[in-house]
Specification:
Layout (H helix, E strand, L loop, with lengths): L10 H8 L6 H12 L5 E3 L2 H9 L3 H6 L4 E3 H11 L2 H9 L6 H6 L7 H18 L8
Parallel strand pairs: 1-2
Helix pairs in contact: 1-2, 5-6, 5-8
Length: about 140
Amino acid sequence: MLTEEIPPGDATDISCLQGTVDLDAGEVELIAACLADPQAILISGDKRALRALVSGCPPDISVRLHGRVVCLEQLLVLIARRTSCAIVVQGVLANRELDTAIRAVVAPGGCTEAQFFEGMDAYVAHLRTETANLLLQT
């Protein structure tokens, strides 16, 4: 089965997350669902929310998510390595204004493969310093 219904998160986790500044209701639900399934991985492009998980949530929450979060930049790198960097860059160009890191790495005219991987890897490394051990080791 390619799709699966996401089970609701634990009420205690939801309650704990709801008071966190910079987490909206949808993020709270997704994070709580991820916490409820130890095999789940959270994929998020919202770096503000990832930082909030470390700085605004009780330590128990972020510890339970250690190594289980993939940010947008990691996902793009994984796709580029498995398919083609040129295809990923081409796909990103149409929507590059939606993400600060992507906008910094992918210029309006595109970028080289080396620039793409170097820029994305640097951004992910920086995000790791801000989010402790949340990000999956890729």
